[in-house]
Amino acid sequence: MALVCLTDFEEYAKEHLSKATWDYYAAGADECCTRDDNLLAYKRIRLRPRILRDVSVSDPRTTVQGTEISFPVGIAPTAFHCLAWHEGEVATARATEAVNTCYITSTYSTCSVEEIVAAAPNGFRWFQLYVYRDRKLSEQIVQRVEALGYKALVLTVDVPYTGKRRNDIRNQFKLPPHLKVKNLDGVQVTESTGSEEYGIPSNTLDPSISWKDIYWLQSLTRLPIIIKGILTKEDAELAVEHGVQGIIVSNHGGRQLDGGPATIDVLSEIVETVQGRIEVYLDGGIRTGSDVLKALALGAKCVFIGRPAVWGLAYKGEEGVREVLQILNDEFRLSMALSGCRNVAEINRNLIQFAKL
């Protein structure tokens, strides 16, 4: 049977991955309300298609931070790709290079940043960063990825502590012994309690991180800094004031604070606050091309997919990730055309009608 939509890949992955691995990727925090609402929120939004607009030619290209990508969907940072496919992040990097879109490499990769760059030397990549209690460790990683040609730093700001993911606790989830967090390999993480959480010593992340650390990060690098994990207009305004170059509206796939909003539901207030001063992106809940269209209509410059990329890996490695991206590209172009849009510049708020509750 051909896999024709992203949920087909989800079903395949659920059948073929081990229970502990599936549960790890699927997990939300606590009761998973926010995880599930990320998807349901799109179904509450209706489109207002325009007709007789000559959509014989369509162009889904856009730019992010000045770099052209083939369509406005990139790969969000997700951990441990080798759990889904033996080549792991190397396969993800090759797929995104082939499709010509942006791949945000996770700190928690099971391939090193060097291996990823070697596998896809012409790929367009950003690097997702956490701030550690040991700041020297963060500094070393920033220097490594800047030297390797990564084009931006994506600072994840919604994990002062890790959310409570019940199935991971039940399964006593641990990385298998043959895998490790390669980017931290051989690095002594100080102040550890000796226990491990998601492949690195617990207490590695710094819960004291604050807005002043944005200035510290800017002092280390010339790369653009994008903050991932903003859900309010107040924090969006602070991000602009602190001179960052972009925001990813994100609730960490519903894996951190349960009971927070779906990302698509807060996108408008953030876009209105930012007023074009910096680019706004979004992740969480994107499963179809029309979801992409809705997010762009509400002001996102680009969206990023997390779990669906992992499902593609589980299906067929590099080829599977390419298929997932190609399906989204095809669906997005079709939704654009059926709504009367010939290019991304024609996608705007007039396309959106919120469903009557």
Task: Give structural attributes.
single chain, 357 residues, alpha/beta, eight-stranded parallel sheet, two-stranded antiparallel ribbon, 12 helices, globular
Describe, in plain words, how this protein is organized in 3D.
- The chain is an alpha/beta fold and 357 residues long.
- It has twelve helices and 14 strands.
- It has helices spanning 6-16, 19-26, 33-43, 89-99, 113-119, 135-147, 166-171, 212-220, 233-241, 263-274, 289-297, 307-339, and strands spanning 45-47, 62-64, 67-69, 73-75, 102-105, 124-129, 153-156, 196-197, 200-201, 225-230, 246-249, 279-283, 302-305, 352-354.
- The strands form four sheets. Strands 4-13-12-11-10-7-6-5 form an eight-stranded parallel β-sheet.
- Strand 8 (196-197) and strand 9 (200-201) form a beta hairpin.
- Helix 4 (89-99) runs parallel beside helix 12 and helix 9 crosses helix 10 (263-274).
- The two termini are 38 Å apart.
- 49% of the residues are buried.
- GO terms for molecular function: (S)-2-hydroxy-acid oxidase activity; FMN binding.
- Its EC number is 1.1.3.15.
- Its cofactor is FMN.
- Belongs to the FMN-dependent alpha-hydroxy acid dehydrogenase family.
- FMN binds at residues 77-79, 106, 128, 130, 156, 228, 250, 283-287, 306-307.
